[in-house]
Design goal:
By secondary structure, the protein is an alpha+beta fold. It has a domain at 21-121. The chain is built from eight helices and nine strands. A nine-stranded antiparallel beta sheet has the order 2-3-4-1-5-9-8-7-6. β6 and β7 (165-173) form a beta hairpin. The protein starts with 15 loop residues before the first strand and ends with a helix.
Length: 247
């Protein structure tokens, strides 16, 4: 697949960036908690997209939160910095779901600190943009694969073709463990993802570029104040965006 300068074009005027998924963890420091195993609880919206997924294995509480799905059916448009009020609403909703889950299972052993001290270990910031001209998401994924070393490129067989394949998604893990870069065809993901209902309103040729920040970089950005309650606030979200734009 040839990649030329004229093909690698993106619509900067239509670029949308913001928050997507967040992972958090907390280990319950009580006697006997190392033997505690609780079932997974998953709360979804009407499109079957996950708002919250929470579990407890060996006393370690692990949660995945997608605040976008708390306020929108689909996450084609991430949660932007101007949507601070919506972020607060989403935060309150997901914290209540997690508190209810732990209260139900732990009974009198439950403490508010179990949720209040959930520390963010992964945070996803993404950009969604439409390709222009002859460029397609396939073209861009091939381009990223050539630029970055040691990548993982997932491919799919094109419809009505026995041999021709397209690039489905691209993944690159930064060598120092600060972040993971992921890119994929967002239009295709919204149509074909088996985990949620197809999105009939998604535009064609949308490219998604995701930066998954890991614990090492999050500690540098947030310091010790990186609980779920800290991160999902207007002030901290502005600070985070300011930090990554200044990099």
């Amino acid at each position: 697949m040839a990649t030329t300068i004229t093909k690698v074009r993106l619509n900067k005027g239509r670029c949308i960036s913001g928050l997507d998924g967040v992972n958090a963890q907390y280990t319950i420091q009580l006697d006997g908690m190392e033997n505690l195993y609780l079932p997974v609880k998953e709360e979804k919206n009407e499109a079957d997209n996950t708002i919250v997924s929470i579990s407890c294995v060996g006393g370690k509480v692990s949660a995945y939160v997608n605040p976008v799905h708390a306020i929108r059916q689909y996450n084609v448009k991430p949660l932007g910095i101007v949507e601070n009020i919506k972020l607060e609403i989403a935060k309150n909703q997901v914290l209540e779901i997690m508190k209810s889950y732990l209260q139900e299972h732990l009974k009198d052993k439950y403490s508010e600190e179990f949720v209040d001290n959930l520390k963010v270990v992964k945070l996803e910031y993404n950009v969604t943009m439409k390709t222009l001209g002859n460029a397609t998401p396939d073209t861009m994924l091939h381009f990223f694969d050539m630029v970055f070393p040691d990548t993982f490129l997932h491919r799919y067989r094109k419809a009505d073709s026995k041999c021709e394949k397209g690039d489905n998604s691209f993944k690159y893990k930064e060598k120092n463990g600060n972040y993971i870069l992921k890119c994929y065809d967002k239009t295709k993901e919204q149509h074909d993802n088996e985990h949620h209902k197809p999105n009939p309103f998604v535009e064609n040729n949308l490219l998604r570029v995701e930066l998954l920040f890991l614990s090492k970089s999050l500690k540098r950005i947030y310091g010790d104040k990186r609980t779920l309650s800290d991160v999902l606030t207007k002030r901290d979200w502005k600070n985070f965006v300011g930090n990554i734009k200044g990099c």
